[in-house]
């Protein structure tokens, strides 16, 4: 079998950032997959499932309610390795195009207090596995990175501009 695109990225050199992972054509439309890399793969601890789950609920809620982008948001969810998230958008975007949206989303998570949307037995299959304080922490850390993002945080290592 051919190696899939996400396994061709050099995870040894990859640092936290916001990257365009791939662009796919679906009919006449382009779907942009963004790699929201929160931790440095194989170099620092990964996020625990409870904070990943809380971030997933909060980000999905924020993104699907964001007035400008909500119709373009196709999916937001965690990476299996727990080092970040994928955001799929309808349209042809760069990491710079998505930077304000992702930064605002993670500011929302950083500052969020209260009940996590969808954190009930009726709405979620694992609603007890949530950690809001750690979600706030990881989101704050990611916001700090995004607010200072440059080429090293917006393009995969070795990627041509």
What would you say this structure looks like, in words?
It is built from four helices and four strands. It has helices at residues 49-63, 95-111, 132-147, 151-154, and strands at residues 17-26, 29-37, 73-78, 84-90. It is globular and about 40 Å long. The model has no long low-confidence stretch (mean pLDDT 94).
List the helices and strands and how they pair.
Blueprint: E1 17-26, E2 29-37, H1 49-63, E3 73-78, E4 84-90, H2 95-111, H3 132-147, H4 151-154
Antiparallel strand pairs: 1-2, 2-4, 3-4
Helix pairs in contact: 1-2, 1-3, 2-3
Summarize the structure.
The protein is of the alpha+beta class and 161 residues long.
Number of helices: 4
Question: SSE order, as H and E?
Answer: EEHEEHHH
How would you sum up the global shape?
globular
Give the DSSP E fraction (strand runs of 2 or more residues). Answer: 15-25%
Look at the structure and give the mean pLDDT.
94
Structural class given helices, strands, pairing? alpha+beta
Q: What Rg is obtained from the alpha carbons, in whole angstroms?
A: 15 Å
Share of helical residues: 25-40%
Main sheet, how many strands, which sense, barrel? 4 strands, antiparallel
* Number of DSSP strand runs: 4
Strand ordering within the main sheet: 1-2-4-3
Calculate the terminal CA-CA distance, rounded to whole Å: 29 Å
- Unreliable spans are none
């Amino acid at each position: 079998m051919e190696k899939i695109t996400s396994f061709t990225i050099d995870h040894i050199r990859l640092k936290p950032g916001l990257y365009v992972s791939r662009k796919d054509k679906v009919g006449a439309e382009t779907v942009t997959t963004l790699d929201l890399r929160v931790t440095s793969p194989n170099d620092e601890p990964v996020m625990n499932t409870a904070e990943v789950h809380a971030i997933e609920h909060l980000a999905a809620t924020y993104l699907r309610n964001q007035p400008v982008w909500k119709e373009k948001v196709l999916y937001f969810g965690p990476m299996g390795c727990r080092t970040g998230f994928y955001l799929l958008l309808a349209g042809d975007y760069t990491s710079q195009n998505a930077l304000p949206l992702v930064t605002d989303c993670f500011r929302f998570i950083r500052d969020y207090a209260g009940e996590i949307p969808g954190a009930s037995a009726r709405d979620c299959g694992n609603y007890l596995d949530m950690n809001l304080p750690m979600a706030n922490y990881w989101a704050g850390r990611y916001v700090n990175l995004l607010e200072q993002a440059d080429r090293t945080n917006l393009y995969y290592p070795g990627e041509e501009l």
